User: What shape does this take?
Amino acid sequence: MAEREDSFVAVERVGNAVCLVLDRPGRGNALVPELLCDLRGAIERASTLHPPALILTGRGRAFSAGGDVSAFADAAGDPDRLQAFSSEIVGELNGAILDLLAFPAPVIALVNGPVTGGSAGLVLASDIVLMSESAFLQPWYAEVGFCPDGGWTALLPERIGAARAMAAQVFNTRYSPADCLSLGLAHALAAPEDLEALLQTTVAQITQKDAGTLAMARSLIWSPERRERVASALERERQGFLQLVGRAETARRMMAFLGKGSA
Assistant: This one.
């Protein structure tokens, strides 16, 4: 996949590990098809470098604000365009999640700030989640009128239980760093100024381990059969998204979310 000159994903190094940085800070690293295509291309290229670990983080104050609601709103006046845009963005997000699950080395999510909407899938697909004490995880779907995507139904129930996963949608639950730690969604917390040091320590620990053992463990944990089950569940999310996104109620809620109407 060719990389555009204005790529929304920067590739950096942390020791011998490859770090992919979502690089759309002016929009809170909100997801659009171009960013997700850049991410998938960067993951593919990173896999050929055989790093001891892959790191995923965001530039600026947010990890990612999830799907760019303004982009959906821009397409809302044309039903065919809205369906095509929605199918593309959720499809590419699903592909990125599956690419991460298939990566042949441990994946670290360095959660530097808020994670909302579908960007949670990039965290849920990671093995080790290092979280800033200024970050949080929150769905927002029932507020905006979207179907949950990004693994909120395909991955999260397995992690925290079906009842908690459903309650997150009902109450638009904001999971604090302490919540994420207690639920097993994060593995370590740090003050924002200490997050980089925590990452360096974690990468050093991984580098000292046998890479073949870690690669084999990951391939067994995320076996092709298990990834296929996840892929089917993610596809159901995409189909559900397409069913809901064209409704008048969703359009009304999108406008209210963007401050252009009343809820």
Q: What stands out?
A: The CA atoms of residues 167 and 230 lie 21 Å apart.
